[in-house]
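REQUEST FORM: STRUCTURE PREDICTION
Request ID: SP-0412
Submitted by: Lab K.M.
Chain count: 1
Length (residues): 79
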Amino acid sequence: MPILALFGAHIDRNARWPPIRANVVKFLEAVRAAGGRVEIRDLPKAGIRGNSHLMMMDKNSLEVADVIQTWLEREGLWR
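STATUS: Completed
RESULT:
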């Protein structure tokens, strides 16, 4: 089962989030090393800004949903 990890904006503005993100990335790299399919997306790098950790409740949640939908289709998990 492929894994998509999305990270919103402003992670570096709160001392809690950089270590959390680093731990998630470390876990995902272990999954990848074990043969798993992993994709990590930073939404700001994709031009989607302003998201919190509750990105599906943010004002631009449809943009985030589109990223997820496109990924699901590309992975063959949605028709």
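NOTES: Helices lie at 17-33, 61-74.
Reviewed by: T.R.
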